[in-house]
Amino acid sequence: MTDHELIRRAEAAGIAYRYRDFRGEDVAVSEETLGAILAALGDTGDTGDVSGAGDAGDTDDVSGAEGSGISEGSEGPGGASHRRGLTGGGDATAIAPAPAGRSWGFAVQLYSLRSRASWGHGDLRDLAELAAWSAGELGAGFVLINPLHAAEPLPPVSASPYLPMTRRFTSPLYLRIEDIPEYTELTDGQRERIDELAAPLRASNSTGDLIDRDAVWTAKRAALQIIHQVPRSDSRRASFRQFREREGSDLEHWAAWCALAELHGPDWRCWPDAARNLRKARRMTAAGNLGAAAGFHAWLQWLADEQLASAQRAARTAGMAIGVIRDLAVGAHPGGADAWTYQDQIVRGMSVGAPPDGFNQLGQDWVQPPWHPGRLAAAGYRPLASLLEAALRHAGGLRVDHVMGLMRLWWVPAGMTPDRGAYVRYDHRATVGALAGQAARAGALAIGEDLGTVDPWIREYLAERGILGTSMLWFSREPDGTPLRPEHWRRGCMATVGTHDLPPVTAFLTGEQVTVRARLGLLKQPEDMERRNAELMLSRWRDALVAEELIAPGASPGHADFTVALYGYLAKTPAQLISVSLADAVGDRRAQNMPGTSEEYPNWRVPLCDSDGRAVLLESLPGLPLVRAVARAAAAKQ
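Below the sequence we write its predicted structure tokens.
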């Protein structure tokens, strides 16, 4: 095949044969990559209707530079006035609700936030109490949490919230055992047994030791099996029945996958042929031991749904105009329940990720199979719409990780490094329409994480559909490289200092963010050059903070004062939402995640701690001066 023919086929299939990287340089995609993606898409490379998505060879990519409720006439957080032409799939006319004004709130990796009563792992009661306290005492309008997607049904349990077994259902790790209504019906002996299970996990809350999900889930599962045997009242049985009817086949598939995963392992690709077949598997798990196991997992989801609803109710009752903002991961594990359920709609032999950027200089491979654009279109985008509908339930908003993936995704062929991928387009009118339509139906905000390498038209289109963007302080710069002045920030966004993929402010100030990445081999330039660049960035931010009268000229602020000043800077921007990292607010030093690592770094297992590595519990937050100072800075009037 000639180069011209390969490029012609790639363009017809919606594959970009070149792109502009984070340095603004034009990069050609290799023939090997184009050929592999074409083969994975099928002989025709049909991607459905991708018209209007821009030229596949477009090189206009640029590096991402960068108190309230919802508008009047709303029902709950959002209004019926936004409900235009909603369908079960993509809707090219829907517009997501808009915030009524400025609002701020804490962003927290919920598993890391422990209380005296939680079992070594933050839970939905902790979420409810954080929301109620921060709203009532600090005036917060929302709390943003990590994805609560479900992992494996048996240990070992994967740590990453962004590589789940399903995005459709909730991890029972987040259940507060004592809040289950049937817990009150237990005998004294059963309660004593549950207390014994909880005791060592509660003891670990006072340490800075890494979170042990396997130990937590082993204990919680044992407790849940005890409670599951308690007879339910008529009203509780009716409620469970209604839940199962509402969730329909999606719940049946998840419960069936869990039952089979307990028997054959959590990767459906290694199962016997009969179990790999969706229809046969559902019959296998309809009765007997497998049926009982499936019923148990359906029951767990009912409990999680109830506690999610309670958390949002607590947030709104306390005065939050938005409440809980949930998070949706880009994809799910290739061996998990979603990939099993949607075998016909995903592309095997491909993984989604991101090209190299300023912080992740090797690129990223997220080990998640992408939707097949043509097959998703043929399904009327209903699988996507159903997922979004579930994610928006019991929430005042939804953050969509890597929202550009609704328009185009970086596909990495199996066996290739992340920098050797290519962008594949989707019909953005339908995919973004699904998000805007479901947000409008739920009366909730839609927030897109649009950091990194983004075409300008993507942000413009998302804004037209009411999708808020995300602007991050560290990477928000003027054309000359200096910090982006407050008045130049966009209004329709959630402003943050960092993200879960970056270290907290304290680590930037001490230089630990360079030390750790150098030790892990994540730098593409010499360490001394990286340190000079990091110090230059900090120096420029000190100058910017001085210019805004947030620190005194000539001052060398410590981590606490520097953190407060940075959030004060965000408050001077026109951003409608300001997200305050709880890790920043307690002075934590460790990053939750280091992209490009696996076992080399304890990703997603770091509990909330202060700058000295001491555990910070939920009950301690009201007494921490830094937490209150950061909250005051973020809440300051523009």
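Residues 111 and 184 are 25 Å apart (CA to CA).
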